[in-house]
Amino acid sequence: MRPFLSVASAALIALAAACSAPSGQATAQESAGEGEGAIVAAVAAPGRTPANTARDRYRHPAETLTFFGVKGGDTIVELWPGGGWYTEILAPLTRAGGGTLYAAAPAGGLKAIEAWQAGKPEVYGAIRPAEFPHKDGAKVPDGSADVVLTFRNVHNWRFRGADNTAEAFEQIYAMLKPGGVLGVVDHRLPEAMDSALEEKSGYMKRSSIVGFAEAAGFRLAGESDINANPKDTHDYPGGVWTLPPTLAKKDENREKYLAIGESDRMTLKFVKPAS
User: Fold this and answer.
1) Which of 33, 127, 266, 270 shows its CA 20 to 30 Å from the CA of 24?
2) CATH number at residue 263
3) How confident is the model over 110-122, as pLDDT tens digits?
4) How many domains in the chain?
5) ∠ CA 188-88-272, rounded to 5°
6) Cis peptide before 230 (omega within 30 of 0)
7) Within a domain: residue 97?
8) Is residue 2 domain-resident?
């Protein structure tokens, strides 16, 4: 697989190409460059939590969001944002770009985001809460989203069973506009390892996620090794939580696991066909 270029390298290439391209192509390239610049600015936003910025070297947020084609003017849905690691980036990005950001989780699952909205309404107040998977709460309207993003969550859906995972992908498909993008990052289980590990280890096989997505109607449009980690052996008895940032074993072999770093992750880009 060809490695994904860094944001800086991609921007330089785009700039060079724009200098010699016809005007229509140059306009498109300039727009892409502006999108990358807006993402870099959001990643560098001063309001981010220092503990979160320390994880950038493992999670590569600027490169990841650029790979997914995220733009500040998009309608973006972040699924199961948890403690808001990516929300700290997506909120200022959409605020500056005039877009819309939904945070979608099961009922009661948006407490961190709600606290931020109360404490910093100028940054987080415009986030729209929604229930996902949807039952009877607020819903992301069908056909409204340009991009749906989920970071290290598919394995959690898998813990609830294959049928629930399939339903989650079907609901995501319904949220997106035709041509819309689903961006998935999750802990990668090597294809040669026992699939039963998906039910307890926190790791998922690429083929499993692709299978769920394609069954819902998505097309795999691209994948990247931005978030790969060849040091990860994927075989910890305590699962992926053995590694940072959780470090479930506390001080036991702590330096060993810190040296490995965060998990080996796949980065998959799916598209809802335009017709």
Assistant:
1) 270
2) 3.40.50.150
3) 988 999 899 999 9
4) 1
5) 55
6) no
7) yes
8) no
